[in-house]
Amino acid sequence: MGIRGNKIGGNDELDAAKIIIKLANKIGSELENPDSLVDENTLSKFSIMTNIVQTLNRAAIDEVARVLKVSVPKNPSRNDNIKLHAW
Predict the structure, then answer these.
(1) Under a CB-based contact definition with an 8 Å cutoff, are residues 15 and 61 in contact?
(2) Which of 22, 42, 60, 80 could make a disulfide contact with 76, Cβ separation 3.0–4.6 Å?
(3) How far apart are CA 19 and CA 15, in angstroms?
(4) Average of per-residue pLDDT across 58-83
């Protein structure tokens, strides 16, 4: 799988784990405003993210899970909600 003609994982700039983390956080942020999901192309971002996940090895999946993992606070802030939605 590639982006802009470059193979993901074969280029430091296109590190698949970092792309997934960025997309997950963006999607989590967009879920805070459900009325804009269509305008923000959230479903397309999710589809791209799932396609990239398929290219990851176990170490990369572990890295993504470690970065995105959050504990559920009693009174979550907006930032906590974005992280929860991303997870």
Answers:
(1) no
(2) 80
(3) 6
(4) 80
